[in-house]
Amino acid sequence: MLLLALDTATPAVTVALHDGTDVIAASGQVDARRHGELLLPAVDRVLAEAGLKLDAVTGIVVGIGPGPYTGLRVGLMTADTFGLALGVPVHGVCTLDGLAYAADVEGPFVVATDARRKEVYWARYDDRRTRVTDPAVDRPADIAEQVAGVPAVGAGALLYPDTFPDARAPEHVSAAALAALAAERLAAGEELPEPRPLYLRRPDAQVPKNYKVVTPK
Fold first, then answer.
1. What is the pTM of this model?
2. Mean pLDDT for each 10-residue chunk of the chain (217 residues)?
3. Which of 12, 35, 82, 101 is the most exposed place for a label (fewest CB within 10 A)?
4. Radius of gyration over alpha carbons of the chain, in Å?
5. What DSSP string describes 9-27?
């Protein structure tokens, strides 16, 4: 097994290689505006660090969000392209699950990432492997009662200390955690979801109203 994992659902552009036992190379850079520019060079770096070529990869793992439309689609389209070109399966993993898996927290906790518009993407977990609610997008004040009394990890938790007073690392997802979680689930015989994006809301870009249509005379 050689899994190439990547995620662009948060401001982090993160890539890793996992050989079924351990992460053998990883790269991460935080830049919310340069997902498309940074992703492929990061793939090249981890392959070079591992001394491998892309055709050695036997599967792709991609974070499916939730996340902003523009950033998320960069990772998903890249993963689909690699899968088609190499003839290997593409496995989707919820980005929040990757953050939870990397968290050093015992007992119930919450994962929250920045959804912009003064909202967070979030879900509750019984432990680092077990999500107990579907991913959702809400204003922090609206979910205060639901997340009260438990630790929280992720950039969204750090942004809103009134709602998440016990905020902890990691701030962003890592492809290393995604890859390790996917490898564990695959080894256990689990079927991972198809790489379909969890947008949870419409994209920011909208067709302007009352726009002028220009047609040739």
1. 0.90
2. 97 97 96 92 97 97 94 95 97 97 94 96 97 97 96 97 96 96 96 91 58 58
3. 82
4. 18
5. SSSEEEEEEE-SSSEEEEE
